[in-house]
Design a protein that fits this description.
It is a single chain. The protein is of the alpha/beta class. The chain has a seven-stranded mixed beta sheet with strand order 1-7-6-2-5-3-4, sandwiched between helices. Strand 3, helix 4 and strand 4 form a beta-alpha-beta unit.
């Protein structure tokens, strides 16, 4: 019952605005993105996403130095825990990034229009050659518009979020080599709780941590296979620290508190970083 009430609340609070924005900008941006500057399209999409995350009561905690994630000229790679992961990455990056999504996302309401509006693409994991062709087209777009892209190398969401990450797919890094993008690893944790848990929390603790940027040159002549394995190993240990921090957060009853206003930004759109009250003491 609590889980149903949580979704009903979200529908009543968000659906009117989303429907309004579908008719005011989503349709035209997704059908003819070339007619509008990427900065304009991205700003509108990001504003909608920030609104949705606020209504979902997500308590976004950013490691010092993480915010903002500047997506321009980078391939952002992140672990995959829920359907909200792309939304969080867009919220974290004031600079335009496109999303590489699986084709199944096309069946979702509204989401495909948001992704198309910011030059995102949909790939079929069973059609690697078709994916490569899309990556070639996107590489040209990246060079023309100077934007970044986000991809989830695990390929599908991790159904065991409190354990190790799934194996990274080497093909996820092809876009970096084709478009000349450096790699920005980003770790996310906690957003899966909104969907998976029946409990209703006053806030849902979501952590984001950006690791140091890896220059494209470090991919080297060995190709994407060994590089994918390396990135998976380098991201797993920091992820375990986020998992432990998440455990302590809920054990201390902080999920019963209201979410802080993390979405407040300065005029130059940098995040106002905060520390948890417990950590600040």
């Amino acid at each position: 019952m609590k889980k149903a009430l949580k979704w009903l609340r979200l529908v009543f609070l968000c659906l009117p605005r989303v429907v309004w924005e579908y008719f005011t900008y989503m349709r035209k941006y997704s059908k003819h993105p070339e007619d509008y500057p990427i900065e304009e399209r991205y700003r509108r999409v990001r504003g909608t996403i920030l609104f949705l995350l606020r209504q979902m009561k997500m308590e976004l905690d950013l490691d010092p130095g993480t915010a903002p994630i500047l997506g321009r000229g980078k391939l952002i790679i992140a672990n995959h825990l829920s359907m909200f992961d792309p939304l969080i990455l867009i919220a974290l990056s004031p600079e335009p990034i496109g999303i590489v999504a699986k084709k199944e996302t096309l069946k979702m309401p509204f989401v495909p229009h948001l992704i198309k509006a910011i030059d995102g693409i949909f790939i079929d994991r069973d059609d690697p050659m078709g994916t490569l062709r899309k990556f070639r087209d996107v590489a040209k777009l990246i060079k023309a518009e100077k934007i970044g892209y986000a991809v989830f190398p695990e390929g599908t969401r991790n159904k065991f979020p409190y354990g190790m990450m799934n194996e990274f797919h080497p093909g996820s890094f092809k876009l970096a080599s084709m478009a000349g993008l450096d790699i920005q690893p980003v770790l996310l944790f906690g957003e899966q709780r909104f969907v998976e848990e029946k409990a209703f929390h006053r806030s849902y603790y979501v952590q984001a941590s950006a690791l140091p940027v890896v220059p494209l040159a470090e991919m080297g002549p060995t190709g994407t296979g060994e590089f994918a394995e390396r990135m998976e190993k380098e991201m797993d240990a920091p992820l375990q620290r986020l998992i432990e921090k998440d455990r302590l957060y809920y054990e201390n009853g902080q999920g019963k508190k209201k979410a802080k206003k993390w979405w407040k930004m300065q005029q130059h759109q940098e995040w106002i970083h905060y520390e948890n009250e417990k950590n600040a003491e």
